[in-house]
Every structure is written in C-alpha cells, then in structure tokens.
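Kindly go through one protein, given below as sequence and tokens. The question is how this chain folds according to its tokens.

***
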Amino acid sequence: MFDDLRDLYQEVILDHGKSPRNFRPLDNPTCLAHGNNPLCGDKLVVYLTLDADGADGRIEDVSFQGEGCAISVASASMMTEILKGKTRDEAKKLFEAFHDMCTKDDFDIAELAGYDEDAVERLVMLSGVKDFPIRVKCATLAWHTMQAAVSGDKDISTE
C-alpha cells in the first residue's frame, strides 16, 4: 500500500511538473508576488485576480510563471487548481493546513474535517515532501508567494 501511494505521489508530481496547469501571466491581476527559494534556485511569480465586487475576496483566477524543480512547479500548478473560487480566508486556511502537513510530525488530518475534500486530498499528496525536509521549501514556495500576494507584499523568500 505504501509503495502504491509513493508511486502515485511521484506520478502526480511528474505530471504537474511536466505539464503545469495555469502556467501563464494574468493580464490584469489584482495582486501578484515574486517568490524565491535561494537554496535550490526556484523562482516563481504568482498572479491572482480577486473578485472586486465581493467583500470576501474570492479568487476568480490564479496563475503562475517561473522556473524551479519538479516539486516547486507541481505544487504551484496544483495550488492554482485548488484556489480558484476560494475566498482569501479559505486560501489562508489551506496554506496553513498544507504547511502544517509538511512540517509537523503530530499533524492530524482530522483537523481538516469540513474543508474541501478534493483540496485536502491533493494537499495530502504533496505533503509527501515531509519525508524529504530539504524539499519542504520547494513544495511550499508557491503557497508562501500566494500569501504574500494577497497580503500586499511583492516579494517573498524561503530564507
């Protein structure tokens, strides 16, 4: 069973790494930020268009550009798919949950009851980087960059 999960993890990472979704600039983003992981050279720009009419800051569109390792690109690709249609608060909660999945030994998936099940399933898939601590920054770079963008910051570094 564990080998099947690891194979699936690798397959998903390779698929998104080779054929990233939403890999493009947005014409008129509401916010954007540049992310940098100096440890391995990953550099991303995350673009977001937030609903101007809604008070909840719903993410109408999200995309990214840049270059990096397969994990960094795959994570950014999956993030863009997960975040479309989410509110700014939902995006923040998903970021925090994903970060905890990747960094905390005592993380309990039950804490995510009530979250979007598809999003949680995808995040669990990516959280396999926890077994490779050097790769955690690769997997979380796009998420940190998205958080910077919606917070009004233009640049973020994993260092």
